[in-house]
């Protein structure tokens, strides 16, 4: 098992073993690290090698999305953080990219290459969940964002669907999403971009309004089939996969190209699955409630080759200095990669 020596790790990230642990933020930091099982003998074999020649090799990339962690960072800072903490991909920021000249974009691509990084997936900059006016306004500006992403070398975007609505029935909402997301897909596809759609699985979420909507992989695949555009696929989140009651076999039935983007996290222990709340999660492998071994192994088996990021919605991380939070997230990701590669 991949673990860290506690004293050496604290020294590395700048925490004293005595006085430096006095504050509430540091205590929360250490508790988070310990709950994730990060302390122990350091394993010397580098992460990234397959456990055996007969085992499928990991093709997906570890991605840093500062926005998913509540860490403020512009594009250049995000690239520096990703390199510093050993990630393989970094979140692109379309609003920043669209303001760059060709020369500036070429320089940015050079920085990315020098850092040994690739782009992860951008957030879709279109409000398709609300009024028609908001949707049309977003759709009009989407080509500009898509062109900027294409020029920068970005190939993926992601977004989520709300799992219920106070007024629209399931069928009304389904038809609306087909129409709007097909229009989005047409623009993205013209610029070499794919869109990953995320369903929201917790029962506490899809029962929060009068009319439940898509909240399972099977329903999302039905929507994607109806949209019927090659630019659209799944954003697969281990949290929603778990809360939707889905299995490893559900993932193994997918083709690699159906999965655009992956989110990794764990669930709080001692909470029945139907009572799990979307905003209360844990770092991946912190509790073992979610079968991340099965989840990650299945992704390796189907040959998923996109970015995978950590999105824990974990309050303690947001209260820490960025580099301390990133140290914990980076080690959680290293454990996920080791698990995917059969080293844990």
Described by strand count, sense and barrel closure, the largest sheet is: 9 strands, parallel
Residues in helix, % = 40-55%
Shape from CA axes? globular
List the uncertain runs: 1-30, 35-52
Q: For the CA atoms, what is the radius of gyration?
A: 20 Å
Structural class: alpha/beta
> Proportion of β residues?
5-15%
Enumerate how many helices there are, as a single number: 15
Average pLDDT confidence is 88
Spell out the helices and strands N to C: HHEHHEHHEEHEEHEHEHEHHEHEHH
Could you give the distance between the termini? 5 Å
The beta-strand count equals: 11
Strand order of the largest sheet: 3-2-1-11-10-9-7-5-4
Structural account:
- It is a single chain.
- With 344 residues, the protein is α/β, with parallel strands linked by helices.
- 44% of the residues lie in helices and 12% in strands.
- It has helices at 6-13, 24-35, 66-69, 75-84, 94-97, 102-114, 132-152, 170-190, 203-206, 217-227, 238-243, 248-252, 292-302, 315-318, 322-340, and strands spanning 61-64, 89-90, 118-119, 122-123, 156-160, 164-165, 194-198, 211-212, 232-237, 259-264, 307-310.
- A nine-stranded parallel β-sheet has the order 3-2-1-11-10-9-7-5-4. The protein has a two-stranded antiparallel ribbon with strand order 6-8.
- Helix 7 (132-152) packs parallel to helix 8.
- It is globular.
- It starts with 5 loop residues before the first helix and ends with a helix.
- The relative contact order is 0.16.
């Amino acid at each position: 098992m991949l673990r860290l020596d506690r004293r050496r790790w604290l020294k590395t990230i700048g925490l004293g073993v005595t006085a430096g642990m006095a504050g509430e933020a540091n205590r929360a930091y250490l508790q988070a690290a310990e709950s994730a099982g990060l302390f122990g003998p350091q394993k010397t074999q580098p992460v990234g090698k397959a456990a055996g020649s007969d085992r499928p090799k990991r093709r997906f990339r570890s991605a840093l999305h500062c926005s998913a962690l509540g860490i403020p960072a512009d594009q250049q800072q995000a690239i520096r953080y990703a390199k510093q903490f050993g990630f393989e991909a970094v979140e692109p920021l379309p609003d920043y990219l669209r303001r760059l000249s060709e020369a500036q974009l070429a320089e940015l691509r050079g920085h990315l290459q020098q850092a040994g990084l690739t782009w992860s997936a951008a957030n879709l900059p279109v409000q398709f969940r609300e009024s028609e006016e908001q949707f049309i306004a977003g759709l009009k500006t989407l080509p500009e964002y898509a062109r900027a992403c294409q020029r920068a070398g970005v190939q993926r975007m992601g977004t989520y669907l709300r799992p219920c609505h106070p007024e629209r029935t399931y069928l009304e909402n389904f038809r609306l999403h087909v129409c709007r997301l097909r229009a989005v897909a047409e623009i993205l596809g013209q610029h070499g971009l794919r869109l990953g759609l995320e369903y929201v699985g917790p029962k506490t979420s899809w029962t929060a309004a009068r009319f439940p909507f898509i909240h399972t992989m099977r329903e999302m695949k039905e929507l994607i089939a109806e949209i019927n555009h090659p630019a659209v696929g799944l954003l697969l989140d281990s949290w929603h996969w778990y809360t939707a009651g889905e299995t490893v076999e559900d993932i193994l039935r997918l083709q690699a190209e159906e999965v655009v983007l992956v989110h990794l996290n764990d669930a709080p222990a001692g909470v029945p699955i139907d009572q799990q709340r979307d905003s209360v999660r844990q770092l991946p492998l912190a509790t073992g409630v979610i079968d991340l071994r099965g989840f990650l192994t299945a992704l390796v088996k189907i040959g998923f080759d996109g970015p995978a990021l950590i999105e824990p919605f974990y309050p303690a991380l947001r209260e820490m200095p960025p580099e301390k939070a990133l140290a914990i997230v980076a080690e959680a990701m290293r454990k996920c990669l080791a698990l995917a590669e059969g080293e844990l």
